[in-house]
Amino acid sequence: MNLATHAAAAFAVVAAVGFQSAPRPKPDCGASFAGFDSRAQVELIARLPISSAYPVGLEVTPSGPVVASRSMLFGVVGTDQLVTIPFEQAVSAIAVDADDRLVLQTDRGIVAVTRAGPQPLKAWGDGVHGVVVNSGQRQFIEAISADGVTRFVARTPESAATFGLAEIDGVFRAASWDASGLTAVVGTKLIRWTQGTNTLERIASDEGLKEASGVCTLGLDRTVVTLRTSTLLFTRTSMVVIAAVGGLCRVRDGHLYVFDGRLQRLWRLNDLSRLGDPEKDLARAKELVVLSVTQDRPFRETPEFGEAVRLVGCAKATEMATTLEK
Fold it and tell me: Are residues 90 and 50 part of one domain?
């Protein structure tokens, strides 16, 4: 699958997808798609101060989601309470351990956030050389990039020993490690290892994946990749842009959380089961085109047509609309 070509056909503004290799869209592709796929249930659950530094991590604890910048933690408690915690150590990544404790990777080592304050994981000492990843599992995953190769190793909080999992050509971009397994973007490849199997599966390969800033899984056959300004949903048969925002993502209890560092906003998405199925996407595009041609303005100027273009491409959406107008 050529993601750059697909994105150019499906998206009215290629810059929102972020694939540098994609050609500029033709001007008759209609209004730019903005926001989220209209089939998803979307909740804006937090607005961070616009002056906040760009985030380095997003995780979801039982108490709620946490966004980290280099010097600050932002936690969402309940439905709308935003708690801000300054942190004196420079944070580069965050994780959640099997006890649902927040774990921070800092310039002074790895620390767990407890009621008594930050507690270092002493067993690891200064033996961490990559990015630590975890979303609630007993073991942590460390991604170590060097000389154009990324190694994934597993480690427990009690020991400095590591266990090698995989070695992949390419620079590490993003990863998630949860009950479903390991999903990562390395170089131009989107890969997944499902717990309980011996197979490392390559889901997609494209130059556009070099722009990935986050990745997470919605199930065995559904993977989300966030770029800086867009969110993509991969299935075994398709790739579709589901949002014109991006940044970081995590999944907990079936909810997809997306934090856009440019806008400093955190969303929770639900009811995504209808997205990413080519037949359902085509049916939805037809519904949107019907709505676009029944308005008192040219169909290309309607947001419905812009969303249809995202689902089936400019040529197909235009063909549908011109046929209905005859």
Answer: yes
**Which range of residues forms the domain containing residue 49?**
44-276
Which residue is associated with the tokens 């589901």?
242
- Count of the separate structural domains present in the chain: 2
Helix (H, G, I), strand (E, B) or coil at 7: helix
Same domain, 254 and 113: yes
174 neighbors 160 (Cβ within 8 angstroms): no
Residue 296, Cβ density class (10 Å: 0-12 exposed, 13-18 middle, ≥19 buried): exposed
At 241 the three-state DSSP class reads: strand
**284 and 251 within one domain:** no
For residues 61 and 11, membership in a common domain is answered with: no
Cβ atoms of residues 226 and 18 within 8 Å: no
Per residue in 219-273, pLDDT (tens digit) is: 878 999 999 989 999 988 889 999 999 999 999 998 999 999 999 999 999 989 8
pLDDT tens per residue across span 165-217 = 999 999 999 999 999 999 999 999 999 998 888 888 999 999 999 999 999 99
Q: What value does the mean pLDDT take over residues 35-58?
A: 89
Compute CA 278 distance to the chain's CA centroid, rounded to the nearest angstrom: 21
Interatomic CA distance for residues 133 and 154, integer angstroms:
10
Give residues with Cβ within 8 angstroms of 42, minimum separation 6: 35, 36, 267, 268, 269
What is the DSSP track for 29-84? G-SPP-SB-TTSEEEEEEE--TTPPPPSEEEEETTEEEEE-SSEEEEEETTTEEEE
Query: What is the token pair recorded at 4?
Result: 């750059």
Question: What are 194's strand-pairing partners?
Answer: 181
CA angle 278-236-305, nearest 5°? Answer: 30
The arrangement of strands across the sheet holding 248-252 comes to 41-47, 265-270, 255-260, 248-252
Q: Same domain, yes or no, for 85 and 133?
A: yes
Rounded to an integer, what distance in angstroms lies between the CA atom of residue 150 and that of residue 91?
22
